[in-house]
Every structure is written in structure tokens, then in C-alpha cells.
Give the backbone structure.
Amino acid sequence: MKIFVTRIIPSGAVATLQEAGITVDQWQEKRNIGHQELIDICKKYDGLISVGQDLIDRSFLQSCRHLKVIAQMAVGFDNIDVEEATRLGIPIGNTPGVLSKATADTAFLLMMAVSRKAMYMNHKIMRGEWGFYEPTADLGIELHGKTLGIFGLGKIGLEMARLCQGAYGMKIIYCNRNHNPEAENATGARKVNFEELLAFSDVLSVHTALTAQTKGIFNRQAFDQMKKTAIFINTARGSIHNEEDLIEAMRQGSIWGCGLDVTNPEPMQPDNPLLDMPTAVILPHIGSATQQTRAAMAAIAAENILACRKGEPLPYPVNPELYKP
């Protein structure tokens, strides 16, 4: 079996596959692979480990219908036409759960950094502006006892809720399609509708999947319904917020601050106005970027490949309906 990997991944996973007699070739260049280029490459392989946001759309799948498996080294899979893959009988795997703590840590980091204008103040030092002490200048806001609103309270959202409650005694509200009894029991979280989430959150943290329903849901109308003292955090997918509307909301003071690990589009351009705003903190999509988490993600991707090699169902399937009789 021959597998192509669209980035260089942790060596432990590669070694696991090679020990099982699988040939593993990794993309070596520090540039994104073009869509047609990836199609042409994958015609020579039996399986694919997709790392990042490779476009696995209908045309790719039609051209590479011979693939026995596609293992997404991420929890999200909005870059994949799962319906078409299922129709063609191609199992898709992902890496759920393993990155929950690391991503929640990133959301928590963003919340803290925004609340105290940390990046802006650091940049003032680099500009030589750490000078005269003004007791009323560059003040942040405190988080103790505030309300955390979570849009999409799953595993990552629950970890964020636990962090905020433990550190700052924050009250938790959330907006989901369904109740999350585990989170309600663990944190006292209260389910609200979208309008209530916007109105009552002091910090609103996004942890939902990107779907047709969530794409662009945080737009000008949504930001206008939030508290002027609110912080907006997005560590899920950039397309869930409308970035032009977010910029305008920040400029006009509709919300107090924002922390983004994902942007719309990605990568963010260096002249984006958010980068110069005192209460905005932007990170380059590093939510899962710890040594431990990336190694675990690669290991799960390898598990999915190995299961396919053995003719077994993927342990972490996106389209489990393929295995129903």
C-alpha cells in the first residue's frame, strides 16, 4: 500500500506505517499543493493523509475514485465532499477529541491576551513607547465572575468552559442544536438561543463546525447585538465570522475586543486593520500546535490508514454509514 501525505508529519506516525509495510511519501515543499497537482499525485497512490485544508471536492474524488482511504489529520472536514466520497465508497477518517485541550488552551490564551491588551502593549515596548506612567491609560478589563458564552458546546467548548470556570468563576451559557447534559452537569452550563447568547455573553467563544448554517453567522447584525464590553473569540473556522463586519464592529465599538486563531480568509494579510487594534489578538491557526497534540493527531491518522490496510472499519470515521449492512 502506498500513502501520500500533504505535509511533513511527526515521525512516529510515519514509522508506524512503514513498520506495517506501507510506503509513505510526504510533500517536502513549503507551499500548498495545487488542486490539479494533488489529483495528479494521488493517481499514483492507494491512500491520502490530508493535512490542513486540501480541497477534496467532487472533481478530486471523481478523478481519484481509486483511493482506498482518506485520513484527515484534523478534526474538521469541511474541505472534503463527504457525500461524494461516501457515494464512491471511499472511507474518510478524522482526528476527533485529541486536540480538545490544546485548542481550548488557545482560546483561553486569546481571551486573556485580549482582556489585557497584551499584544498591543508588547508592541509599544518594541516601538520604544514604554515611557511616562499614566494610571488611566491602556486599561484592560477583568474576567472574574463574567459570563462565558459558547457557540458549539462540544468537547473543545467543554474544555474552555472548565478553564474559564476554574480560573475566573465564570458563568457558562451555550447555544447548541441539542442539550449537552455532560457539560451542564460539569459546569452548570445553561442552554440559550442565539439571540440570548449574543446579548448576555461577556466573552463569546466559537467552537462549532463550519456548516452551511454556521458560515458567516457572526456578521454585522450579530455583532450589533453583543455587549459593547464583549470579547469575541474564534478558534474554530474563519468562515464562521464575516471579517469585514468584525473589523467594522471593532472600529465602531460595537464590541470591545476579539481574539482569532482562524481568519477569513487565511492566511491573514499583514495590512489587515485588526493587527493594529489595541484589543485584537491574532494567531496564525495554532490551536493544535503542541508537540504532544500533533503527534497524537498523526498517530490517529495512521490508525485510520492501518485499519483500511487490514480491511477493517476506520476507528475514527467521518462517514460510518459505509459500514452499515
Remarks:
- The mean pLDDT is 97.
- The longest helix spans residues 291-309.
